[in-house]
């Protein structure tokens, strides 16, 4: 009895220690000092552009949030805007970083003119009676050869949502994600003719993820041990807007050089060759991509081979079954874009703590449904039948399973899968007891390699 009490105390001490050391899970425990703002992936790109001969003088009167959208709220109304309202300032910072533009103050031009008038009045009043003095004069203001117009034109919420989770005997874990999307338009207007010289369009997804796990179990008839852990991470909207605007500035410069709008500004003709080639390649790739990493045509091949590393746990007649590591290899053939037939062989180990361990080879045939073949990330479900091979007997089973597949490249996909095996016999572990046949649970992670490709635009 004392041993059981000590065991419960140890479990509680471990739980308290985990909760006390929550900094392991990125839980802030103190104040942080202010710091410089983070850079985006396009900040170095615009800073490292080849410098022009002369900077282009531009004016930005207004580059604002044009969506008028408020933040989504689960309960009640939320009157905070979904988009930061300082997008003009973000654009001016991107123009300065590029070193291609001299930005002049136009957003608050009234404040500038008022201040200049105050300077003139003060100088005139205190310049004395010297008739030859011109103390009230000020240098002329720069005027813009080009205006930049546009703004954030859309903010789409829940473009893509999803998740995965599992629970087994009081132990559970899950993950969820959500993607939003912002869109930015930027145009350059000639002040001498009013002609719109160039219009560019960029977009950026905003990712929110949540991972959680929980555990609960009755220690005795009256006491329940329960533990929860989780972390949620939301991509800052400000950084997403900044990245989209910086990409728009980069696109404006590159397209202007490519289309010979800034010929007189380019220092050397071949400075932009590699940058323009990469930009053209990105444009070509985008012609075959839609919102949410979706493609107009099925990108997966007709035939694929795959391999998984799997953990298998038997649900048989012995107690204290353990999950053991095994593997699976197989081939798939896509009958349609959404349906494929699969054949595989795999090795599993039936193991119970301390007294039973048995390796077995299985083969399976399945029909699998891939509901989102035009997306990089797609769930899948399958069902089929299989056999278990031993020296003395061949046994039969059925199985169902499912998971997620993500296309890392055009021919390589990463897969996470879970499967439940239904036995037609009760002697998988060489012991027959009770009325229920032996079963099996497995989880796996592996790669799916597509050998042939769909016909699509290069």
Keywords, separated by commas or semicolons:
single chain, 458 residues, alpha+beta, 8-stranded antiparallel barrel, 7-stranded mixed sheet, 6 helices, 20% helix, elongated
Order of helices and strands: HHEEHEHEEEEHHEEEEEEEEE
Q: What is the average per-residue confidence, as pLDDT, rounded to a whole number? A: 82
Morphology: elongated
Percent range for β-strand residues: 35-45%
Q: In what order do the strands lie side by side in the largest sheet?
A: 8-10-11-12-13-14-15-16
For the secondary structure, the number of strands is: 16
Quickly give the structural class: alpha+beta
Radius of gyration, taken over Cα atoms and rounded to an integer in Å: 32 Å
- Low-confidence spans: none
Distance between the termini: 72 Å
How would you characterize the largest beta sheet?
8 strands, antiparallel, barrel
Q: In percent, how helical is the residue content?
A: 10-25%
Supply the number of helical segments.
6
